[in-house]
Amino acid sequence: MLITLEETSAMIRQGRTLHIAADDALLQQLPKGRWIGGTTPYFSSEEGGIFTKEKLFVTEIDFAEEIRIASYGKYNVFQIMEECYDNCLTLLIMPYGSEVANKYAKEAPEVEELLMRPTLGWISGFDLNAPGAAKVYNGETGESFTDRAVVMYCRLPKEQTVLINMINLFTDDKADPVIRFDVNELEVTDCTVDGVKVNFAEYIRQKGIDPSMPLVSDHNGSYLNTSIREVREKEVSLYAPVYRNIEYRFASHVDDYAAEFMRRLNEQGQRKPVFSCNCILNFQLGNLEGKKTLPFIGPVTFGEVAYQLMNQTLVYCEIVG
Amino acid sequence: MEAVVQEKMKRILQGDLKYTSANLAFNMLISKLQKRVQADPGSIELCIREMDAFLAKYPIVAKVDAANIAAL
Questions:
Q1: Confidence (pTM)
Q2: Do B24 and A164 touch (CB under 8 A)?
Q3: What ipTM is given for this predicted complex?
Q4: I want to staple A221 with a disulfide (CB 3.0 to 4.6 A). Which of A24, A37, A62, B20 is the partner?
Q5: CB nearest to B28's CB, from A159, A161, A222
Q6: Domain ranges of chain A
Q7: Could you tell me how far CA A244 lies from the centroid of its own chain?
């Protein structure tokens, strides 16, 4: 829910366990307590998509039996796989552009235990028209970071489990060429297209590919996106890494982004997410300002984590059992 | 894992049967293990054990997948 600074501060003082997303100027004013936070002024609220620096988006973590809060740098971020509870939802926030976020993005898919440790989260950001530092907050200590990840481990009752899922409007056409990379990187030069080595930037230009369409990889029917940040002369910058040994294709063109996003949202039926966040690219390209996306409300983010880093995706989790 | 599920799981990992779950993590795991089996067919038993560990960790959601796979 989107509420005022006073209302949020009161909830913290009551000892409630909170996940908070807001502009940095508001997060700085919060009292210490059982909360973690990240910066963004973009939200999907009960009233619709909104840009605001006046209110905070607060999610109460009332489903956990016990919580622990911690922060990690780039050298130990994968300790989250070992330090979580056995039956746990790990909520993770990392600052946009930070080394810890880049490390997590590049290496998470190769972490053996990744899929056994439900991890949901987001990349904190800033006002795109007045770029500042993306930050995360450990509310317990009152610390903020631009270079560390903050985590809330949420222990679930034994008879319950967490189900992480996503809404992605992109798929591929299996007749399209297969693109492969031989690195796990956010900046790429070469790739192979149907086995032939080419410069990726030149390939995008030569084929007239719309760079607002992400690369997609098919993971047994679940499509994961890698969005294009910038096509330079010889290099392509990405919002999430490409990975070696993964087959990519460019997503099939979507004629009406906003309509297709809402259609995918409505396909979800009766969901009861306890937490969700949506990508800033969906917010912008889907014209979501003022549009309701219920029951999927939460921060609008600079990257989403559903086990690994995602792009142009709404991620959410439900507690089942 | 029941024998029938295990047998069908083996065929899914070998690419002979197709099953898509409603569970994102399960799809990601199937995809990862299919690549492993493709690269090293001898790893199939290890991959089945990994799949078994995953389903055992999430018995509530695994029940649905196990039933669907048994019915393939």
A1: 0.94
A2: yes
A3: 0.92
A4: B20
A5: A222
A6: 2-166+259-320, 179-250
A7: 21
